Structures are given as structure tokens and as C-alpha cells.
Amino acid sequence: MPSVSTPPSFLENTFRKIYPQDNEWRTRAQEHLGTLTMPYWALGDVLDLAVDLAGITRSLHPPVARKKVVVMVGDHGIAAENVTLYPAEVTTQMVYNIVRGGAGISVLARQAGADICVVDVGAKDDFADLVQRGAVLAKKIGRGTANMLHGPAMSRTHAVMAVEAGIEVANALAPEVDVFATGEMGVANTTPSTAISAVITGRPVAELTGRGAGIDDAQLQHKIQVIEQIVARNQPDATDALDVLAKVGGFEIGAIAGLILGAAANRKPVLVDGFISTAGALIAYTLEPFVRDYIICAHASVEPGHAALFERLKRKPLLQLNMRLGEGTGSALAMPIVDAAVAILTQMATFTEAQVSTAKQAQSPLA
Questions:
Q1: What percent of the chain has pLDDT over 90?
Q2: Does residue 9 fall inside a structural domain?
Q3: What is the domain extent for residue 144?
Q4: Are residues 79 and 193 in the same domain?
Q5: Co-location of 154 and 26 in the same domain
Q6: Which residue from 11, 25, 171, 231 puts its CA 20 to 30 A from 97's CA?
Q7: What's the structural domain count of the chain?
């Protein structure tokens, strides 16, 4: 009998659409930038970003005007272990604050000319009134994760569903978005993010664990011990991103991973916010390494684990502002740099156009 092949899954179909940046467009951008009226590569990282944007969009006029911060929302059972200063109900309260326009991301997104899409993938609250009037997109997988100190945060099926939810959001929004940005809301989410980071990078938990929303020294030591116990109890497979997500992750972290995968599949750049969002990016990268070519790391958080994630992703942040708010605030602050990179690429005069003399050839020190 002929063998019957299994049709590819939704995730596999998404992976198949993700290709590296286009080298031809990168080369065109590099050559053009080299002719502009400034010393060679004098704008440094801004020019590197322009080349990335050309490679991502396959254009010397990368579209970046339409920006959207997608805030994924999820609660965490591990909050019961006193790893954070804030009660679990703050997740719900902050979602309403974002929708009303009073949160940090609300202010900074307005400043950047970006829209916000709030997505419930795993909150305890249903936000029925907000969903009904279109202020929150309902993609709920569960009412918060389980307490992963006592077992997996979620089932593997729910981990897949969380990633798929993020991809679905990216696919739905892609026709109206040029630049995606990640954001999150969920009390205690630095704990699963640290656990994910420790498992995938192989670094010690104590080296990666930070103060989150501002815990003191004694609380920090407690948090480290809890995360160490979580990893030891669940034994996630570092090579299997879905196993890591299921055992020590969060619904919103999985959805962030999916959003990044979906953005890449749609050839859209995605500004990745702080530590929690970068943990989601690490899940996405472990699932499909080519996704890295679409990631723009917005800023370096004060969370100590963030640097290890940049190293793993082989990416460096645009900004260093000692921030730790999350929500997508770093992504919003980085948006003007994206605009600036495209403006330089498309508007700055060449030496020929400006009738400016080019630099003399450098004289060899041996001459």
C-alpha cells in the first residue's frame, strides 16, 4: 500500500513561510547607504537597521508607517508563591487602564503614532464588556497557568494553542500593519520568563533572576529558589521549545512567540520589547531559527537575564534606558528609530546629488 503522508500542521505551514532576509536587497541598501553624504557608516546601528528593514521587506523604501503594539495578556499560577509584589487582580486592572489610555504603553504608543491591540490569551478575567465593544480580542486558552512549582504550567496542547493564537493574530492584522511590536501584561511573568531563559540558555537561575516589579533582597532570594525548584520539578527539554513553554512558560509568552513567527511569515519586522517579550522571542527562535532575521530588539531591560537572551539570539538592543515596565513600552520608544532608519535610506542625498566631494583615499601608514 502507498504510504499516506500526514498533512503539515498550522505551525509547520507557518514555519515554511519564514525565509531569511533577502541578501540582494540588503546589498542594494548597503551600496546606497555607502554613497550618502557622511563618512562611511557614520550613523552606525541606524544604518544596520536600515539594511535589515530593506532585507525584511525586499524594498529600498521599507513601509513602516502603520505600527501596532500587540499586548498579550495572561495570568500565572506561580503568583501564589509570593514571587511578586503585586496581587493577581492587577492584571485585570491594568488591562482596563490600557484600554482607557492611562497606562505607560497607552501614552508612549500615542506618542509614537502607533495603535494598540490587547489580546486575552490566558487571563483569569473574561473582559466580557471590553470584548463586546472590540477593545480586547478574545483568544483565551485558559484562565491563567497552573502553579508550576507543583507541575507543568500548561499542557503541551495548550502550549501549541498559545503559539497558534499569536500567529492567528499576526495573520489577521498583517494586511493593516507594517511594523509589529510586542507587549505583555501579566502579574508574575518575569518568573516564567526567567525559567525559560535558564532552561534554553543553560545559565544558572541565580545569574538570570531579577527584581521584576521591585522586590527586595530577601524576596529576590526566595524568587531564585522558587525558579530553581520549578526547573528541577518539571525538567523541561531545552531543545523542545513547546516542552519548555508547556512546563515553565505562560500563555502570553507563547502568544508573543506566535506573533513573532506570524510577523516573520508575513515578512513584517517585529519590535521585541523587554525581558518577557524576548523570552517569547527565544521560544520562537528555538522553534524556527530563521525568525531571528525579523526581530528588532527594542531595548535592554534592567532584568539581568536579558543580556543572555540577546547573546542567544545574536541580536543587540537599540536602546539602553534602564527600563523594566514591559507592556511594550520599549518597543514604542524604539519606533522613531525605525522611522529614522527609513528616512535616512530614502531621503538623504548622495555625494553626487549634493555635489559634495568624497573623502580622499586613506594613505597607507607604510607609504
A1: 94
A2: no
A3: 67-336
A4: yes
A5: no
A6: 171
A7: 2
Provide the grid cell at 66. Answer: 502603520
203 CB-side CA count, 13 A: 20
Give the pLDDT band of residue 4 (cuts 50, 70, 90).
low
pLDDT digits 0-9 by tens, 304-314:
999 999 999 99
**Angle made by CA atoms 337, 338, 340, in degrees to the nearest 5:** 60
Please give the model's pTM, rounded to 2 decimal places: 0.96
The pairing of strands 319-323 and 136-138 is: unpaired
Residues classed as catalytic:
327
Q: Looking at this protein, which amino acid is placed at residue 10?
A: F
Stretch (H or E) spanning 264: helix 251-265
How many other C-beta atoms lie within 10 A of the C-beta of residue 235? 10
CA distance 22 to 24: 6
The answer to whether position 243 is within a domain reads yes
Question: Are 52 and 190 in the same domain?
Answer: no
CATH number at residue 318: 3.40.50.10210
The pLDDT score that the predictor gives to residue 204 is 98
- Beta strand spans in the chain (E): 67-74, 115-122, 136-138, 179-185, 270-272, 295-297, 299-301, 319-323
The answer to whether residue 211 is domain-embedded is yes
Question: Within this chain, do residues 36 and 100 fall inside the same structural domain, yes or no?
Answer: no
248 & 301 share domain = yes
Same domain, yes or no: 143 and 238: yes
Three-class secondary structure of residue 77 per DSSP:
helix
**DSSP characters for 138-165?**
E--S-SS---TTSS-SS-HHHHHHHHHH
Mean pLDDT calculated for residue range 327-341:
98
11: in domain:
no
- Paired strand residues for 36: 350
Residue 310 corresponds to which amino acid? F
Q: For residue 359, give the C-alpha cell.
A: 573623502
Q: Residue 224: which residues within 8 A CB-CB, separation 6 or more?
A: 205, 206, 209
202: Cβ–Cβ under 8 A, 6 or more apart, which residues?
A: 238
**Grid coordinates in use for 326?**
514591559
